[in-house]
């Protein structure tokens, strides 16, 4: 058996509108976890941040010293992976699980995200929307399915971007959001944001603009080849990591999606799946423990393994963990997950015809 699922036939559409309740509550799960797991340690979190920054600096020093085309592809892979690790640190800041101090979360969040051209507050707010509506066909923010009718209306180019170029989708998402939604992560006028969040969005946009300006200046000084070797190569690998991980945890034929009154937070939070990334787990800060993360948004990443083991006995078959390799799981999602039914609730991804 590859994935634990609740349904014996996950591809049947349940049109029954009575709300299905889970046999446990959020309090049941929280009570099973040691209380210290909910308390971020600023010192420990900073240690992870400086560890990532130190490794990134060391890789740059090695690349500069060798300056060899035999090494550059290796450098891109390694440095892009570390960019992704740095993003996950900023991810904790966005959830306010990095520190108990808001100003520390905001400062480190910008220091982690601005160099990789992620608008910290713009991303933080849209990511909050995603977590508040996970598994909800109507309100989820990112990596949600299109319906069958939407799929039929998509043009050739739209299908190529959506289903074939998904590992390069993130920069487009920052400017255009997901299909069927409008708004940019860089503009305070976007429907993503409340009026009270205007200056947060502006500050993060200014930071990213300054970063682009710095890259432009350095490219002017040293040429496009410098940009490719030292920044574009790792940046593309980072984007591929981000899209791959997000795809894997939210795109699986055994994950249910809900509509209307049938959805509520805890049920939606369980509409994700854990993956084991092998030795990469320790590099990208346990991002594979995605079920516990979606249930307890403000839990630091270094407590997620403990929390996962604590709640497994309560979740039972509601806990999903892939036993496939990352490559197998990706290919399975790519080939099996195209759209969901236009009607009903507790529905599942279907293959294209």
Helix and strand topology:
Blueprint: H1 26-32, H2 42-66, H3 72-94, H4 102-113, H5 120-132, E1 146-147, H6 148-153, H7 156-163, H8 170-176, H9 198-222, H10 224-250, H11 265-269, H12 290-295, H13 304-315, H14 326-336, E2 339-340
Parallel strand pairs: 1-2
Helix pairs in contact: 1-13, 2-3, 3-4, 3-10, 9-10
Overview of the structural elements:
By secondary structure, the protein is mostly helical. The chain has one domain (26-340). The chain is 53% helix and 1% strand. It has helices at 26-32, 42-66, 72-94, 102-113, 120-132, 148-153, 156-163, 170-176, 198-222, 224-250, 265-269, 290-295, 304-315, 326-336, and strands spanning 146-147, 339-340. Strands 1-2 form a two-stranded parallel ribbon. The relative contact order is 0.18. InterPro entries: FA_desaturase_dom, Fatty_acid_desaturase.
User: Approximately how much beta-strand content do the residues carry?
Assistant: under 5%
Radius of gyration: 20 Å
Number of helices: 14
- Mean pLDDT, nearest integer? 91
Major sheet: order of its strands? 1-2
Distance between the termini: 26 Å
Instruction: Categorize the overall geometry.
Output: globular
Largest sheet entry: 2 strands, parallel
Number of strands: 2
Helical content (DSSP H or I, runs of 4+): 40-55%
Provide the low-confidence segments as ranges: 1-17
Order of helices and strands: HHHHHEHHHHHHHHHE
Transmembrane segments: 46-63, 69-89, 201-224, 230-249
Family: Belongs to the fatty acid desaturase type 2 family.
GO biological process, one term: lipid metabolic process
Cofactor: Fe(2+)
